[in-house]
Amino acid sequence: MINTHKLKSTQLLVEISENGAELISVKDIASNFEFMWQADPKIWNRHAPVLFPVVGKLNNNQLKISGKNYEMGQHGFARDQVFEPIEMYTDLIRLMLSSSDVSLAKYPYEFRFFTTYSLKDNTLRIEHKVINMGAEKMYFSLGAHPGFLLPVAVLNQFKIEFEQTEIFERHLLQEGLFTGKSERIEAEGKVLPLNNSLFEKDAIVFKNLNSKWLKLVRTDSNYSIQMNFEGFPFMGIWTKPGQEQFICLEPWLGIADTLGFTGEMSEKEGIMTLSPNAEISFHYELIFTAG
Question: Minimal CB count within 10 Å: which of 12, 99, 104, 149?
């Protein structure tokens, strides 16, 4: 049985699983409203997977490093590994995943990967830190995939507000891989109204948004979830086609392969380079307001 841990603030009760360091519940204490998708296996069996050491799908599920191909599933392996809790308080938990014989067979780098959740009032901060424990340069990417339960299962009652005016150009996918093509979404300014037809072509993927935050808003109530994502150049927005029960807001450092790409990992878009013994951190914040 996988252990879970709870954090508490004045406004929220949060639960995190050691499996994948996954955020599985955020409840408003006053109303008992659940903000997180509850992983219905008939629809989508995850809550908020952590993506490492790649984001998205690879051509033929293969990652090339120094001329050698390694088998790597979509979004990497961290989401299916058990993390070790190394620091725990009422309002903070830090979990660690270390390289092992199992990981080295898939990804030939020695690393430590930390995920930290810290809670204050109605704000949850999520930080990811990577340390290169090896003697050579390490290549990686990471991202987040939180799914939010909608208080009503009607997508067109929701919109996403952006900090800055945006040109809503989505980069198109075919079976999880980028086609190299893009198209404009018919929306203007700072607001993207949601509807189910937006997801008939898979996830909406934006590159290099002007905004450093966005906010999921229900148009006829006070319900909102704001995501501050400065430092993440890519943003995915997804729900399963035909479903209107949840929406994923996904800040990413990297993205899936383009169709036909067979190059080295170091040549992939959005790949980070980390020198031996170096470390780097990225974080985003979620601000929850119940309706």
Answer: 104
What gap in Å lies between CA 25 and CA 12, rounded to an integer? 10
Domain ranges of the chain: 4-289
Contact between 194 and 159 under an 8 Å Cβ cutoff? The reply is yes
Encoded tokens for 209: 């948004």
Global model pTM greater than 0.85: yes
Q: Which of 227, 239, 215 is nearest to 284 (CA)?
A: 227
- d(C-alpha 134, C-alpha 41), whole Å: 38
Phi, psi of 139, rounded to the nearest 5 degrees:
-110, 140
> E strand or H helix at 101, and its extent?
helix 101-104
- The token pair at 222 is 């006070």
Q: How far out from the chain centre does Cα 279 lie?
A: 20
Residue 239 banded pLDDT, cuts 50, 70, 90: very high
User: What is the pLDDT, as a whole number, of residue 188?
Assistant: 84
What are 160's strand-pairing partners?
192, 216
CA atoms of 282 and 232, how far apart (whole Å): 8
Q: Does the domain formed by 4-289 have CATH 3.40.30.10? A: no
pLDDT tens per residue across span 105-147: 999 999 999 999 999 999 999 999 999 999 999 999 999 999 9
Please confirm whether the linkage preceding 53 is cis (ω < 30° from 0). Answer: yes
Residue labelled with tokens 């050691």 = 18
- pLDDT above 90: residue 1: no
Buried b (16+ CB within 10 A) or exposed e, 102-111: ebeeebbbbb
Cα–Cα nearest to 21, from 108, 100, 112, 102: 112
